[in-house]
């Protein structure tokens, strides 16, 4: 068994849920997502037998569950299903592992309080509780044998009554290693029990199989068990914790490998194996000996998440992406590309570079000179200003220090370090082939240097190495640098900085580079820009002795600049330039059109955008005799994307050839699509011309243009036309502080999705002053809070329920706009509670009755139901038989009684039902008639009536009395039960021509009547 990666449950609506005898095409080795299968297609073994023995409802649930994650044929021996159709992995203990790797005193000992309050990322959106001090397990899937279970704590010395110092160190070391596996993600791995468990709080319990009372939480010869794909579901706590058994697993290295592995199953990751085994043990040698976390990581110095890049891999599941689907990556902690944004290396005493680590500083109170490689593309940049001498730096992964020494490192990151000078030329690099740390040791001249750190692979991943795919995690920078003795005084800043507009949208900066001594000379210049009175933002870094800079392709706005001269001793800032106002006209062209009357003969609005060709629009006549024909035109264009500005102008470039009808063409615009304002007449025969209109102040977004012909005289049936070369709206000048606009383009409003489905949220945002703001759109959920920022964000971890998703954008003037869509997330694995329906029963005095209370109860999931508990009647006793109950009235009691019972579905769902009991006298129930429906019958008609009362017995008859005229007759009497019977009633013609009432008589040997129960109508 190994550590496991977290995985996304892909809930694909197109994936069918297959039943046992179905057989569909699939890959020979693949099952689950995108590889549908039936039970008959599974190889013989425990899993297949368990599935065949399930009830139909549980079988359907199990198959649906198994189609929501991917697994291979080699995985089948490790998969299990419970009686309700839940799916889990049972991972074996592997031979040849050291159950307790040798432990030596750690360099840093932890106290009892510290050992059980460790946190890797406090405040993260996700939490995993690494539970090693024992736990009371209650109300979970594991409580089938007993509830509660008092599970035992971690113990390596045979004394469970207290934790020794060695055991506390081993607990802390296990935490450090599990935390390292999930370091790239927004998750807090903690040894402190969270206040509550829920959909996004995981639980790994390290314990023994038997609890304090020698009751097994799970009976197996395995090293761990965990349900698959349950992370993020509302019933996740019911399927927790993931279990790692001390029996045969061993010390911190093995326990941490197993803990991450089992948690990965919770998140739907399956095993990394090959064609002969479900668990690949890795390859390589020395300190680069490699193994996959979801295979067997026990033997590896480097254990990583994998996507099957080794030889004969049977599983190409993208572990890292599946983890990110559920947990999301943490925010990148250091600049990746631009040297100007590099993080300063903290140098103590002029020469020393120090970094704390999770052992010396578990709470990370000093974040200096360290970082995390979050993904294979991450490159972290640091800068240092040094004097002449030797740079000697080591970059070491998290194995740099230990709470408890282990024979295997078990870390994920392999480091490459590169040193550049300030102009981007490589000075030195380090990437040892036989180890995972990096060392830079090189003599340098005084100046600024950039240290680049990234994760790398080694060797051939097919046989003896690995790629950079899973080379992720923490690193720590230590060593020494030559003291920066050159710059002892901050540089002098220019005092004559000037800005001049050059062209429509460019600004040129110039200044005089001040004279300096060697000790006060600048290392370079930083250029800062302010737009429309906002904050100054750095836009460029220039080398020393620079004296000019060009800022080009600017949007409209007022621009002010400063330059900052800097060196290792400090910086100074120049004067601010005067504001340069850039006003770039914004244009928008027609984007759609439609014709009410007439037709497009050639071209389209698209050809007007670049004035290439033209669009010809012709009138259309009604037909009929020529003297009665009327030709007409009414055509519309829409111009969208109009930016607000001081002035907004509409131009229509067109011509109307001369026509014999004297037909001209009237132009009008509308800002709302309904109220049109005339703005020009295109007269026939006057040649090509541009007709313009100054649109109302504040116009933005879309406008609509309409053209109509002016002559509709009967008989003037010539099809006249006009040619349109271009339609354009120009926005020019500063509009003022107008708010931005944001529009959500996907998903559609009222979208529904299953838990775990990928959802992509996209929006466009713009602002008249700031331009395209799509990258600054902030996304939030009414249920989950912040979802991220950008023109498009993706998530598969929305919680269950109805979400209002809001996209918000704010411009530089602090104006904002928002748009919303409604999204509902449902859970196909969500258990539906059973429904207990009311039961009615009867029993004779001093007798008992067995009542099948479950027979009318329902469960939407088809789960098998059992009776959990019963209450006692007020006038009788109740016995729970498991699937029925027995009611016995108190001695001599006659009358009505009731009690309740609780029904369970085995999945944590329950409901309470009521049972009403009538206790009849020994001689039988009192015979009564209380209602007849229908209660009228016409002469010469036969009507089926229903008679309601008490005490009806088989063989009862129906007759009528106390009426006038021909008496009704009853036939086809059916006694449904003791309270209901039916009969066919017929009345022959004759008697008074008025309504006549008859009493209904039921005879069981005695009789009962219902006065006025049935009326005969003439």
From TrEMBL:
InterPro entries the UniProt entry points to: FN3_dom, FN3_sf, Ig-like_fold
Domain Fibronectin type-III: 493-587
UniProt keyword Signal present: yes
Pfam families: Big_9 (PF17963), fn3 (PF00041), Reprolysin_3 (PF13582)
Cell membrane found in the keyword field: no
UniProt signal peptide: 1-25
Assigned keywords, A-Z: Signal
Protein name: Cadherin-like domain-containing protein
Organism: Pontibacterium sinense
